[in-house]
Design brief:
This is Abortive phage infection protein C-terminal domain-containing protein. The protein is mainly α. Helices cover 51% and strands 9% of the residues.
Length: 352
């Protein structure tokens, strides 16, 4: 039918075939390389028609039924149908299709039931979006970290969207917070920029980089993860306090001409948009890996470090290099972020 009718087969659908998208490529690869698994991996197709007649081939006990469909349209499954249709032109495509099974629902909806027909189309194409992050929870290593944080520190590790954070008295760590913290304590500027620009890029494939370097199962332990999170939280607390202080200073600036409002505005802009890069600047390479060093010892050393001078140097360097640049896109530019870091003195937190 798709070969004969083309896009007219999707006349009542929200979309026609989108061509070579990432998802459609996955559909094609499954069909070609694992046709026997297509039934399990694909959601199938929903087809509506205002009239259907059926004829049993070979009598009442026959397995095959001939359907005659009038005024029909696919309302969900345009990508599946168009992608499979294109396989007919590929080498091995016909053979794969002959071994493939796909669920198809054929719904008869009378012509005067237009409102119901519209609702079928709408709700078959409505779902809560599945983000890249949601697939990370399938990684067994994330489950291992979750059990370890709960067992060793009574910390709830939230790795799935919609999970209940539970009792407010129970400490929690989210997957996003863990990722940002590990990136800040890592050595990759690229990852630090991605954490600000598009963090989902760090989770896109749990079987390749950069995910495997961030969540390095060969050495990442629940203790190391907890240390990274606490270190990054210390940076975030400092920036929040700094911004609150400047907010208060702004309120009284009109009454005291000696206060430099420009300094406050510059620091606020950098604290808001450059928080990920500043965390990376301060924490990059920090030793979170010593298992003999307890979390309380680690946190104690963090308290002894004053971040005021590093932050002021950071702000000054940002404005010296890129004072006229808008700060939001600035900290999403890998080259510019690397230039900022190269102009800064190295920092030693004294945590080893």
């Amino acid at each position: 039918m798709y070969q004969e009718l083309g896009e007219r087969l999707f006349s009542k659908n929200l979309r026609i075939g989108l061509g070579g998208t990432e998802i459609n490529d996955d559909i094609a690869q499954t069909a070609l390389n694992e046709p026997e698994n297509f039934w399990y991996f694909n959601n199938g197709v929903t087809f509506i028609s205002d009239g259907i007649s059926r004829t049993l081939r070979g009598g009442a006990g026959a397995d095959h039924v001939a359907l005659t469909v009038s005024n029909g349209s696919i309302v969900n499954g345009a990508q599946t149908t168009s992608t499979l249709g294109e396989l007919l032109e590929l080498e091995g495509g016909k053979d794969a299709l002959s071994r493939l099974k796909c669920l198809v629902r054929v719904l008869e909806i009378p012509n005067d039931e237009t409102e119901f027909s519209t609702s079928v189309t709408r709700f078959n194409n409505s779902q809560n979006g599945i983000g890249v992050k949601d697939f990370v929870s399938l990684d067994p290593f994330q489950q291992e970290l979750r059990r370890g944080l709960d067992r060793e520190f009574a910390i709830s590790y939230i790795i799935r969207s919609g999970e209940d954070y539970g009792d407010n008295n129970i400490p929690t760590v989210s997957l996003q917070e863990a990722t940002v913290a590990l990136v800040a304590c890592g050595t990759s500027v690229d990852n630090a920029v991605r954490a600000k620009d598009k963090i989902s890029a760090l989770w896109r494939d749990t079987n390749s980089e950069p995910y495997l370097s961030i969540f390095d199962k060969s050495r990442l332990t629940p203790l190391a993860l907890y240390k990274a999170v606490e270190a990054n939280r210390a940076i975030e607390r400092f920036l929040k306090t700094r911004m609150m202080t400047h907010s208060f200073m702004s309120q009284i600036a009109d009454y005291d001409e000696s206060l430099d409002q420009g300094v406050a505005d510059r620091e606020r802009a950098v604290a808001t948009h450059g928080n990920r890069l500043f965390s990376f600047y301060v924490l990059t390479g920090v030793n979170i890996w010593r298992e003999e060093q307890s979390i309380s010892e680690f946190k104690g050393k963090l308290k002894d470090f004053d971040l005021s001078d590093p932050f002021e140097n950071f702000v000054e360097t940002v404005f010296d290099r890129y004072g006229s640049s808008y700060k939001a896109p600035l900290f999403k530019n890998r080259t510019k972020c690397a230039n900022i870091l190269s102009a800064l003195p190295s920092i030693n937190l004294g945590i080893s």
